[in-house]
Amino acid sequence: MIQTGKRRLLSEINVVPYIDVMLVLLIIFMITAPLLTQGINVELPKASAQPVAADNNEPLVLSIDKEGKFYLNIGDNTETAIDDAAVVERASAVIRRNPQIQVLVKADQAVPYGRVVVGVSLLQQSGAQRYGLLTDPSGVADKQRRRR
Predict the structure, then answer these.
(1) Kind and range of the H or E element at 139?
(2) Which of 16, 32, 80, 122 is deepest in the core (most CB within 10 A)?
(3) Taking the model in full, what pTM does it have?
(4) 3-class DSSP state for residue 132?
């Protein structure tokens, strides 16, 4: 039997090669994804964040210097370092008097991240529900000007 003229086109797509390529890409992404999150150098203190709306009340500021010592902007001597227990005691007294007070953390760029976390933890123990991190927006503007 000879068929002449009338052939039907086969309208099926062979998806096996596409599945193979997809599986190879999946394996590549699974291997490389964890490697992308390691070894990133970041300078956290400089950011171009929008300024927080200022209250008439002075915020409670926990400052952390290069050595990791804590300072609060309340009390008689604000330039004397205080220990962890004193931070909790003084901050909780201020927060009890004014629960809506703005709580901010101001840490030096050279401070280890763990020390900042300890400071935030102390503020949470004091009763602070919300807190903010102070940054230096002028540093970002200076870098952008130097690039131009």
Answers:
(1) helix 137-147
(2) 122
(3) 0.57
(4) strand
